[in-house]
Amino acid sequence: MKKYHHSFQNLGQIASKATSLLETSQKRRSVRDFSTEPVDQQIIENLILTAATAPSGANMQPWTFCAVSDPVIKQKIREAAEKEEKEGYQNRMNEEWLKDLEPFETNWQKPFLEDAPWLIIVFKQSYGQKSDGGKKQHYYVNESVGIACGLLINAIHQCGLVTLTHTPSPMNFLSQVLNRPSNEKPFLLLPVGYPAENAMVPEIPKKTKDELIVWY
Ligand code: IYR
Questions:
Q1: Domain range for residue 44?
Q2: Is the minimum distance from the CB of 32 to ligand 1 under 6 angstroms?
Q3: What are the pLDDT digits (tens) for 42-69?
Q4: Which of 37, 120, 178, 208 is surrounded by the fewest CB atoms within 10 Å?
């Protein structure tokens, strides 16, 4: 163990930070129309390192972040995702689901998978590798990787870029395209970049504080 160093701030500083954090966070939107404008690899690396500060079960850090800018791989991912999505929209998703998605005007076509300069594909590691080749147990894998993704989404927004939580379903094609080992399963795909000039977002409400907080 070592001493924890806390950077104490006064109440006024904390209150004003909490307010400005809320205001900035309320501006975050999932964006589906991306510009092809490139983003430096160093920026993507810092965003991923920020995500990897997440807490995880027994600090096993059960995640792998694949960052793709190669246009050939992006094209492969788009083709495979659209094949699954087409099947999903036409046959797998029920009426209620399709109705719930209407405000978002989504469909099986996913041009953002090629337009965005980066795709970050987050893999969860169901287990790890021991040095002797055995399986290392991982704990609370979904919770841990979910938290890391939340930090990543926030970091992308706070630095002025946009993303979208894309979950092509099923998404096991990502393991093949990216040649991942069998202990890793695809968890979330995040295109990252700048919004297209005329990017549109749906007008959707968030729950009010009375709907979402219960004070005791
Ligand atoms: N995976 C599909 C469908 C989809 C499902 C939900 I729930 C969304 O919030 C948005 C889309 C797609 O990516 O279009």
A1: 29-195
A2: no
A3: 999 999 999 999 999 999 999 999 999 9
A4: 208
